[in-house]
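Continued from yesterday's entry.
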Amino acid sequence: MHYKISYSIPQRHYIDIECTIENIALPVIEVQLPSWRPGRYELGNFAKNIQSFKVLNSKDQPLSYHKITKDRWEIKTGGDSVVRIIYNYYAAELNAGSTWLDEKQLYVNPINCLLYCDEKLDDPCRLEITVPSDYALAGAPKVIDTHTEGDFKTYKAMFANYHTLVDTPFICSNSIQHNLFVLDGVEFNVWFQGECKPDWAKVVGDFFIFINEQFVLFKSFPTERYHFLIQVLPYQFYHGVEHADSTVIAIGPSYQLMKKELYDELLGVSSHELFHTWNVKNIRPKEMLPYTYHRENYATTGYVYEGVTTYYGDLLLYRSGIFSDADYFKTLTQQIQKHLDNHGRFHYSVAQSSFDTWLDGYVPGVPDRKVSIYAEGCLLAFMADAMIRKQTSNKASLDDVIRALYNDFGKHHIGYTAHDYQTIIEHITGSNWNNFFGQYVEGTTPYNDLLLESLNYFGLELSVIASRRPYESFLGFKILETNNETIVQSIFPGSVAQQAGLGVKDKIISVNGFEVRNNLNDWCNYFWREPFVLTVITEGKTREIKLKPSKTMYYKTYLVMKADRISDEQSDNYNKWIGRRF
């Protein structure tokens, strides 16, 4: 398969694509546009972005075709061995997994927009990219030739197969900023596209440190060259997507990039996505090896490929010294807060939630139904790490498990199963882990006791206080404030709010007759010692909700911290975990 990508009017956001399929021996072929993209385990329906579509033979004569599914076409070749498909793709969404075109850049995730023929998936692919002559190409395409003609330049690249091609995002721009360094013979490229003023000394220094920490864990790297493609946006944003030898990160706002809070977010997502190079791009669930692009790829092991990655993404920043105690405890606290605030944990296991990412994994869904493979998976990894260390007297850890998965499965392109993951842990510890997996992974047993025990193993404790928002603590509901609207986001089961009839998605418009404009907390504090009435809108109907605060504490605020007094054993455990004294 041979692809050509070009465009004429960038402000229209339409990319022109030509796909040529050669050496066809069949009278009828089918072509498919991917229905989803690896790294986002839900259907993407990219075909909705195709406006025009035509099919020609080798003599530029039209061929007959028709759609047989939402993103699959049947083409009658008429006996010709060559088929050319000419179409366009609307590239007007900018995130870490999308495709975007404007007057400043051409940014392509090929998985969004390049058709394929089943019979040609494993054949070599060619790609030609035509852009303005002053545009540089950022990313992992292996360029074999560059040709400039007038105001335009064409990059030509080769790929081993379609799988490699669609796992290789790229950015073409004349304003992209670039730096690189080499670590253990591997070249790391850092690219910033968009308005930003990177402190290169700090960026390169910090990236070098956390990448080295990941090298220490795995002992080797799967590729010779790697690219961090960072889209810096002028508004608040946070998103990352992993690839075999690159990652795309979208983050913003521009003016805060080098300030601590957002810069820590950049380090966190960069460490997370780099870890995916081993865990999911190489250590891959059996159900996804190889990826099947035209339908869902169901797997119950999201707690491994996303949960373990979430755990190590921040932990390795902590081990490397880039994250302080406060930085790391903040991220761990966030995972615990998400877990304990989510009452879906009583109804749906993390394994079930992994399977159902394809159903509603990236939206809130109905109240109290499911959990997150990221948050719950992270805590499962943390607890498993503590248990392994405890059962082996710190002679082994989750490090050994993930390394074994890479050495035994990832390096040999063998897909693993949930049973394989458990078996490795049992082999390393010499213990039976049926209870752990049955209760916490496949079941809905509360994490609380094991989580506190795991924290205690390292000399840590979990502080619990009332939420700073009284309507969360003593009324039992959370809100989302946006565009001067206050929307009920979640309700604590059995709380005052639930019993009074408050509902998720209710819009709160006043407290005791006073209009609410992103200031519900202020009004609640003002009227706290008095009875008060919320006026809400439910499905267009105005209602009044009478509330009286309870003495029961519903939503709580959690904080991981070091214990004031610890034993020598706890200090040693912490030292073995992090690599430095308590």
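--- second protein ---
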Amino acid sequence: MTRTAPAWQLLLAFALSLLVLCGLIGWLQNVHIISANGMYKSIQAEPWIASPSTARLDQSNYLFFPLYGVSARLLDALGVLRGVPWKQFAYLNAFWASIGTVIVYAFAHRLTGSARVAALTSVFHFGCGFVLLLSVISEDIMPGYVFVLASMALAGLWFDRPTWQRIATVGAVFTLGWLIEWRLLFPALPAFVLALLVAPEPLKKRIGHVLVLLASILAVSGIVQLLWEGHNGAIGLHDILWTGKGVATGWAGVTWDKAWMMLSGVGNYLLLLGGFVDPRSAKDAAGPLAISVLLQVAIFGACVLLLWSRRDEPRLRAVAVIFLGTLGAGQVLNFYSQPQDPQMQINVMPWLAVVWALLLAALLSSRRGVVLVLALLSFAPFAWNVSALAKWRGDDTRWLAATAALEKRFPPDSSVFVYFGYEPITTWQYALWSRTWDWDNRVAIPPAPSADPKFKWIAINAGAIRHPGWTAAEHAAAIKRDIDLALDRGYRVIVSDLWTWTPEVLAGYLGTVAAAGRTEAIYRMLHDDFRATEAFKDPVAGTYFELQRR
């Protein structure tokens, strides 16, 4: 039995991790790298910061907004970025990511009995592309991921000799994680159940252990439900267990485009190489992404070869079932949803750090030259990914300036914007102008000029996301109706540089929401029914055109 890591080592791991991440956030000056979702989450959290007693609970992030709302209030009280939650959230993520570093260190130390292995494994995990990215931007996944990671680590160390106390603890920690982000419930739960079913115990006892796990999950969920009963937006236990987030939307579904996005998600998890958004860009970066995936396969293969003789050890088997089971279940679910998304990959990919720890433990007793190489390889992902993140340095300031320039050029009271829907500028206009979503055939707009709402816009991808059952013709007709409505009411209709996209590029972006088949109808509608004149060019936001009927 290996010993637990000393407390001073855990505190040092936390402090060093937090110091590096906070320094990196300050240096990058961009908390919206690759994903601007954190801006929307910080806006949604504003009622929890201003008045928690009346703020509304979110069904799929039941504990996230209360947690980050209280945390942002604390930062406000301390004078840290007061009133700027979208920046505060990045630093809160750095805090939780540093707890994650402690978990990885403690797990690797207990698994291998080596502080050196634990340190290098922590550095390796810390530096993985999506882990580092989500530790320094304002996305909402980090606290939920850390709780689930902790439950997986405990299960890996305990489920070789499970007791009801250990199982209940794992279930409780796990439940707190998925109550922060609901979809975290699904990848790890099958792995927990499988690990308990293959434990070296009589069958009746194994079935009982599974029931204890499920009971602990239901008990903690029920306690949380009772604690929030009567609060604004509170829901029942059934609705907590099944929120249906993302189901019956354009994000769901199985297409061949998802295979390219899966390559992007798995490849970028280790090394940030590009192709983050759509299948077309993933194809363009296929070579480097494939190399990253092959490196991961090589790490796994080397570990299996070195440890094959120990395959019957109960603890090693429990660790393999927990982490590889989560990988398998998670990637099946990701293929159905958004496999390229960093927050969809981070919770199913920690197997890589575990395999690295086992590989280090098997090889670090070798000659000094091998030790040095392994140490350098442990630091390599961090070095690569910091360099990759650097190209986005300072973009928050540039996007703020671009939003101001756009407002000056196109007065919002007389302008309606047409975007694909992924453009970063839409996030800034939404946050700084007015918190209004795209029209999607659901708006009654007054004649121009009208200052309310300030941000008036049409999104090409809206029909694919919200109406997956539409035909291509219905989708194109809906966009045309919104554009015609804007022109009929006297507005200037301003379209982003999506106007210059080829059908192949448009199909690539529509492929992210399983709607590539709608490309021809949408493209023909835009270019057959309207003409465009270049009206503005910004070095950050790109080129804008004014639409008129043909």
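Residues 7-392 form one domain. The chain has a mean pLDDT of 95. Will compare against the first tomorrow.
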